[in-house]
Automatic annotation (TrEMBL):
The keyword Transferase applies. SUPFAM superfamilies: NAD kinase/diacylglycerol kinase-like (SSF111331). NAD(+) binds at residues 72-73, 145-146, 156, 173, 175, 186-191, 246. GO terms for biological process: NAD+ metabolic process; NADP+ biosynthetic process. This is NAD kinase. The gene is nadK. Gene3D superfamilies: Probable inorganic polyphosphate/atp-NAD kinase, domain 1 (3.40.50.10330), Probable inorganic polyphosphate/atp-NAD kinase, domain 2 (2.60.200.30). Belongs to the NAD kinase family. The active site is at 72 (proton acceptor). It is found in: Cytoplasm. GO terms for cellular component: cytoplasm. The lineage of its organism: Bacteria, Pseudomonadati, Pseudomonadota, Gammaproteobacteria, SAR86 cluster. The keyword Cytoplasm applies. Pfam families: NAD_kinase, NAD_kinase_C. InterPro entries: ATP-NAD_kinase_N (IPR017438), ATP-NAD_kinase_PpnK-typ_C (IPR017437), NAD/diacylglycerol_kinase_sf (IPR016064), NADK (IPR002504).
Length: 293
C-alpha cells in the first residue's frame, strides 16, 4: 500500500458540519507531518492564512491523495478533475446518504488513520463522457453517476431516437432518458426504477423517464457500447443534457448526443471493512439478520 505524502483537501461550502470535519482532518494530517494542498473552497472555510490555496485543476498534478469532505455531490465534482490524473479520492461524509463518501464524522480519527497508515482498499469506477456540439464547438464533459437528457420545456415530452453501437433501438416519447454508470445506479437511476448494479460491472443502464408506453423498461448494455440519442426534429423539442446534475447544456431539434465510457477511471479509497452490500443495507434500509452489525 502507498503511504501518502501530499494530500489535497476539497470541501463543500456553507455548512458548519463540513467545517468541523474539515478541521479534524486537517489536524490529523498535520499531526503526521503530511503536506496539505488546500482547495480554495476549503481554504475559505477554514480561514487558513498559513498557506496557499489552489483550484482543483492546479492541485490535480501535485497531490497523491484527495480527501473530499462533504457529500457524494462533492465527490462527483472532484472526480471529473482528478480521475484523468489518476489521483485517488477518499470521502468524508457530511451529506445525506453517502454512497461514495463512506467515512462518517464519528470515525474520522480511526478510519483516516488506518488509510494513512496504508490499510485501505482501492476501487475503480468508470466515468461516462458525452459528446455534444454547442454553437459549432464540440464539448466532451464527463459524469461519474449519469448523463441525463430531458426536454428543455418541462413538462413537455421529448421525442428521440436511441442507437447503441450504430444499431437502432427505438423511438421514444418520454420526459427523458437517464444513462447511468454502475456507480450512478444507486442515485437518480434508482429513483426512476433502474436496477442496482455492483460498481465492478462493465455495463451501462438506460432508464426511461416517464415513457409514454407501458412496455418501455430499463435496458442494460455493455460498458464499451457507444450510445447515440438523436433529438426529434420537431420545433419546440429542444433538449437539455446534464452531467451529474452539475453541468448542463442545451441542444436543438435534430441534434444528437453521444455517450461512451471514459478511458480514465476514478480511484476511490475505502478504509478497512468497506463492503458494497453492507453500504446498501445501511443506506437503503435493507433488512439485516438479527445480531448482525
Amino acid at each position: 500500500m502507498i503511504k501518502f505524502k501530499r494530500v489535497g483537501l476539497v470541501a463543500r461550502s456553507g455548512s458548519e458540519l463540513v467545517l468541523d470535519s474539515l478541521r479534524r482532518v486537517q489536524r490529523l494530517l498535520r499531526a503526521r507531518d503530511i503536506e496539505i494542498l488546500m482547495e480554495d473552497t476549503a481554504h475559505a472555510l477554514l480561514g487558513d492564512q498559513t498557506g496557499a490555496c489552489y483550484t482543483q485543476e492546479a492541485m490535480a498534478g501535485q497531490c497523491d491523495l484527495v480527501i473530499a469532505v462533504g457529500g457524494d455531490g462533492n465527490i462527483l465534482g472532484a472526480a471529473r478533475t482528478f480521475a484523468p490524473h489518476g489521483v485517488p479520492i477518499l470521502g468524508v461524509n457530511r451529506g445525506r446518504l453517502g454512497f461514495l463518501a463512506d467515512i462518517s464524522p464519528d470515525d474520522i480519527d480511526v478510519k483516516l488513520s488506518q488509510v494513512l497508515a496504508g490499510d485501505y482498499t482501492t476501487e475503480e469506477h468508470f466515468l461516462l463522457e458525452g459528446e455534444v456540439s454547442i454553437n459549432g464547438n464540440k464539448e466532451v464533459p464527463c459524469a461519474l453517476n449519469e448523463v441525463l437528457i430531458h426536454s428543455a420545456q418541462m413538462p413537455r415530452m421529448l421525442e428521440f431516437d436511441l442507437y447503441v453501437d450504430g444499431a437502432f433501438v427505438y423511438n421514444q416519447h418520454s420526459d427523458g432518458l437517464i444513462i447511468s454508470s454502475p456507480t450512478g445506479s444507486t442515485a437518480y437511476s434508482l429513483s426512476a426504477g433502474g436496477p442496482i448494479m455492483h460498481p465492478s460491472l462493465d455495463a451501462i443502464v438506460l432508464v426511461p423517464m416517464f415513457p409514454h408506453s407501458l412496455n418501455s423498461r430499463p435496458l442494460v448494455v455493455p460498458g464499451g457500447a457507444e450510445i447515440k440519442i438523436v433529438v426529434g426534429s420537431h420545433i419546440g423539442t429542444n433538449a437539455k443534457i446534464s452531467f451529474d446534475s452539475q453541468l448542463e447544456f442545451e441542444i436543438e431539434p435534430g441534434e444528437s448526443l453521444l455517450v461512451r465510457k471514459k478511458q480514465e477511471k476514478l480511484k476511490l479509497i475505502h478504509p478497512p471493512g468497506h463492503n458494497f452490500y453492507g453500504v446498501c443495507r445501511s443506506k437503503l434500509d435493507w433488512a439485516s439478520r438479527l445480531g448482525e452489525s
